[in-house]
Structure formats: structure tokens, C-alpha cells
Amino acid sequence: MALPLGFLLLFFAYPVAVMVGRGFVVDGHLDLSGFADVFSRPRTWRIVGQTLAQAGVATSASVLLGVPGAYVLYRHRFRGRAVVRALVTVPFVLPTVVVGVAFRSLLVEGGPLGFLHLDGTFAAIVAALVFFNYAVVVRGVGGLWERLDPRAEQAARALGATPWRAFRTVTLPALTPAIVSAASLAFLFCATAFGTVLVLGGLRFGTIETEIWIQTTQFLDLRAAAVLSVVQLVVVAGALTVAARARRGRERALALADPELVVRPLRLRREPGTPRRDGHALTLVAAGVTALVVVLLAVPLVNLVVRSLRVGEAWGLDHYRALGTAGGGVTVTVWQAALTSLRTAVDATLLALVVGGLVALVVSRRPRRPAARRAVAGLDAVFMLPLGVSAVTVGFGFLLTMDHLLGLDTDLRRSPVLVPIAQAVVAVPLVVRTVLPVLRAIDPRLREAAATLGAAPGRVLRTVDVSLAARSLGLAVGFAFAASLGEFGATSFLARPDNPTLPVVIFRLIGRPGPDSYGMALAASVVLAVLTACVVAACERLRRPGEGGEW
Questions:
Q1: Which residues on neighbouring strands pair with residue 30, listed in sequence order?
Q2: At 514, phi and psi to the nearest 5?
Q3: Are 401 and 14 in contact (CB under 8 A)?
Q4: Residues in Cβ contact with 547 at an 8 Å cutoff, skipping those fewer than 6 apart
Q5: Could you give phi then psi for residue 25, rounded to 5 degrees?
Q6: With pLDDT > 90 as the criterion, what percentage of the chain qualifies?
Q7: Which of 82, 416, 457, 528 is the most buried (most CB within 10 A)?
Q8: The pLDDT of residue 550 is above 60
Q9: Distance CA 523, CA 240 (A)
Q10: H/E element holding 310?
Q11: Which is nearest to 341 in space by CA: 455, 502, 225, 213?
């Protein structure tokens, strides 16, 4: 417990506390008048209202579209299902800057959907947020639905219930904890979105996250940034509390069954002689909605590739050739930045795996004493906070605190290790949430038997826990690597000008005028998306039925 807690305190709690404290401490005295000052501004209420509206609408749309997707992708078996699952998951781990660029290229004047005039609108941001969070609902709900015992629904059907009534009165209540948990996480990710909103909304449709960045970098108003950070922390804590309670309810849901006994072939045509009340219509509707959503998910990515090949009125690879040259306001080539991103992501993933693995190991235990159980639950909740606390706050906090950390005569702000540490802070919750369900599912009697046979604690850990959780550790490595590869919020503060990561370079290229810089940004986004997609595809191949459904 000491190592992960020390890591969290040193590289998360301390920088955030210093950043927030700078806004509330004036001349050495606590001054909370900033709350009244900030909340007296109409701009603040507009930003908070936009954040809640965007997150609420996007979360509702993600749930309405994601539940049918979970039914089709996790309750049925069909050819190419693994490919569709990977495609659905890719948007969630795509760098937010890439998502913003993909939608911008689709909606901008001259783009395929430019005639809709949605560029820079509320609808564009909501669509991008749904694109990003659809996988959260599909995987979160599908992970439970795939293992939900179907006999209760079958009994309701045998007693005369229609397919819709059986779903509404039996299956839906059993799925409610998973739906609430997924919706809470989707709301959290929508409310804290940074890169996507910054690219698509600019200053007109900002969120609390982008406003913290503006107040910090442009106005140098740390008091306003501190107040908004506290507001965001309250929103995050509320979402995490709801998600944690729903997750505990999901663990107490109806009896689970072997996925091989639950998942059945997907039939879009009703077999001759089959009664019309067999639920075929619901399956057909769900399959149609899912197919439409999958196509819509693919459209921005396909358009991104197509636009990157467009050179003036012709087609060519000019933008990709330009990636080997330094230009467009950056001092390194895109390939050099990609190599930097890969090296940084490897370091961050290793660090996140060690810290997150230890947290999952501790939290997976079931102490007998109530106080110890509450402490374990609290540790689980605390390590989820980096998911929602502003990465801008963390990054700026690093700049304020890492000059002489713990009295050391070393300025870590000039060290290349600071970026991997910041990315690891963001990736640790993903590792915990991926590994923890598998560790909790291990029968404690296996450990007791190994210990009884003379195995030392280290050998018990190696032969029981690590052995059974090996595939989930592979999943955790993949998702942590993808998250680190595309992290932008904290990295934008910490990356050195002569050694930026690929998301930082893409954002700089977008900000430069001229079609050449924009074309390079599109090509660089394709490179980053392909890297991320390859990682996700490899992760999906590691997944067993019933494992890793939440992420």
C-alpha cells in the first residue's frame, strides 16, 4: 500500500493541492472570497451550464445507442464480431485531439458534411462526445449482459410475457447497475473532455476543463482556475460515487452464467415456422441500430484518411512526405515526435502497471473487519480521482511543485521523466479497473491451499494471482499504453519545445494557418490513430469471454 499511496500523494494530491492553494492563499492567509468573485461572473455560469448540458445530452445519447450495441455485440455470435468490437473500442482510446481533428475535417466548410454548418456548434461537440463514449456503455453493459443468466427471462416468456415486457421487467432491472455505472463514467469523461472541446468548440462552447486552461495560460488568473478546479472535483466525486455504488450493485446482480451458454448466433431472418413472439423483432431493431452506429463511428475516421490524401484539387501522399520535415511551427519532425510518444508511453505504462497492479492487489482483498473493508473501498475510490480531475490542473501543478521536490537539488521540470509520470497518473485508474475484476473473482481458497502446501507469500502471489490475472494484465498494458500515447492535457504543459509528443505537435499544426499545416495535422492524426488502433486490436485478442468487459 505504501508505494501506490506515496505515488498518488507525491504526483497527484500534492501538485493539485498546491495549484488550488495558490488561488485561495493571499499574503499567507486563506481567502475564500474567490468563490463569490468567480460565481458573480455570468461567464462562469455559462461555462458550468454548457458543461452539464453537453455531458448530459451526450451521456443520454451514448446510453440509448450503447444498450442495443451491448446486446448485439455481447449477447450474440456472428462472423467478424471481434473486428466490430475493436472498431467500437478504438474511439474511446483515440487521443482527444485526433477525435477533434477528425470531426473538424468532416464538418468544416468544404468537408463532406460542411453543408450542415455544424462546425463549432453544440451539436458537433455532443456528436464527438458520443463518438468517444459509446464504447464505455457498450463494454460496461455488455460485460455483464454477456454473463447474465438467461433463465429468468426465459421463465417470464414461458409465463406469457412478450419479448419487450420480459426485457423491461426482468433483464433491464438486472442490467440497471451496469447501465448506471457506465452512464456515470460516460458523464465523467464528457464533463472533463479537453482536447475534443478545445478543437471543436473553441472559446464559444467551452467546458470547465477548457476554462481552467484558459484562465491558467491566457489570463494567469489562478484564483478563478482554483475555484473551477474545486467545482470540477465536486462533479467528479459525485460521478465516481454513483459509479462505485452501481458497480457494487452489479456485483450483487442476478446469478451469472458461462458466456458460452448465454451467447447465441445472430439471426436477422426469422426461421420458417418460428412464432412471431420469439423476440426476433427486438433483435432486428437492435442489430439495425448497432449497424448504423458502427457506420457513423467509421465515417469520421475514414474521412480523416481521405482528407489527409487530398492535396489541393488532386490526390497524393504529399502531406505524409511532409511529416519527415520540421515545419508548420514545430521544431521536430512528426516521426521524431511519434518516436518520443512511443518512448514516453512505454515508460508511463510500466510505471502505471506497477502502481495500478499493487492497488488492484490490495483492493481485491476482502478483510474481515469492517474498518479494514471501508479502508479498502476508500483506497479504490481515491485512485479513481485522476480519471476526472483536470489534467490541466495536474500539469500546471507539476510546474509549480517539481522544481525542488522534497528538497532535492534537481529541477524535475527540465527532466524528461516528468511527462511519463504525468501520463502514468492518468493511466493508473485504467489498470486498476481492468485487473481488479479478475483478481476479485479468484477463489481465496486457492491461495489458502497453496499456503497450506508450503508456498511462501511471494510464490502464492506469482503462481495464483499473477498466473490467473495474466491476460487481464496484458489488457491493462494495452489500454494504459493507448491512454499514455494520446494524453494531451498535462503533456501540453510539460513537454519541452524541442521534444514534444505527437498530440502536442498535432495541436500546434492545427493552430498554424495554411492548407499545408492543416494537411500535415490530418496526416499526423492518421498516424496516431493507426498506432492506437493496432494497440486496441492486440488488446481485444487477449480478451476471454466474460473478461475485460468494463474497459
A1: 25
A2: 110, 145
A3: yes
A4: 437, 438, 471, 472, 475
A5: -110, 120
A6: 9
A7: 528
A8: no
A9: 37
A10: strand 310-311
A11: 502
pLDDT of residue 549: 43
More confident position, 268 or 339: 339
Per-residue pLDDT, 365: 80
Tell me whether the CATH fold assigned to 1-31+316-551 matches the one assigned to 35-308: yes
Query: How far is 464 from 456, CA to CA, in rounded Å?
Result: 12
**Do residues 229 and 46 lie in contact, with contact meaning Cβ atoms separated by under 8 Å?**
no
User: Confidence band (pLDDT; 50, 70, 90) for 277?
Assistant: very low
Q: What is the DSSP letter of 416?
A: T
Neighbours of 140 (CB within 10 A): 29
Cβ atoms of 169 and 271 within 8 Å: the answer is no
Q: How confident is the model at residue 343 (pLDDT cuts 50, 70, 90)?
A: very high
Tell me how many degrees the CA angle 117-123-125 measures, rounded to the nearest 5.
110
* pLDDT > 70? residue 216: yes
Q: Which amino acid is at 429?
A: P
Q: Please tell me the distance from the alpha carbon of residue 218 to that of residue 211, in angstroms, as a whole number.
A: 10
Surface-to-core class of residue 548, CB atoms within 10 Å of its CB (0-12 exposed, 13-18 middle, 19+ buried)? buried
Residue 124 and residue 104: Cα distance in Å, rounded?
Answer: 9
How many residues are listed for the chain in this entry?
551
pLDDT interval class at 271 (50, 70, 90): low
How many angstroms from the chain centroid is the CA of residue 539? 15
Crossing angle of helices 122-145 and 172-191, in 10° steps, is 140
**What SS3 class is residue 505?**
helix
Mean pLDDT of the chain: 81
Q: What's the DSSP call for residue 148?
A: B
Q: Which residue has the cell 455559462?
A: 46
Class of domain 1-31+316-551: mainly alpha
DSSP H helices, 386-514, are 391-401, 418-441, 444-452, 457-460, 467-468, 470-486, 491-494, 502-511
Average pLDDT, stretch 520-548?
Answer: 74
Please count the other Cβ atoms lying within 10 Å of the Cβ belonging to residue 46: 13
- Kind plus residue range of the DSSP H or E element containing 275: none
pLDDT for res 467: 82
| pLDDT-derived band at 355, boundaries 50, 70, 90 | very high
The reported pLDDT for the residue numbered 548 is 44
Instruction: Report yes or no: 62 and 133 within 8 Å, Cβ to Cβ.
Output: yes
Report CA torsion sign: 247, 357, 92, 260: negative
Q: Is 457 helix (H, G, I), strand (E, B) or coil?
A: helix
Spans of all domains in the chain:
1-31+316-551, 35-308
Report in angstroms the alpha-carbon separations of 503 from 202, 298, 463: 17, 21, 40
Give the span between the Cα atoms of 123 and 315, in whole angstroms: 31
Q: Is the pLDDT of residue 545 over 60?
A: no
User: For residue 247, what pLDDT is reported?
Assistant: 64
The bridge status of strand 310-311 relative to strand 264-265 is: unpaired
3-state secondary structure of 497: coil
pLDDT at 147 over 60: yes
Residue 519 in grid coordinates: 494537411
The pLDDT of residue 254 is 46
Among 61-70, 274-283, 370-379, top mean pLDDT goes to 61-70
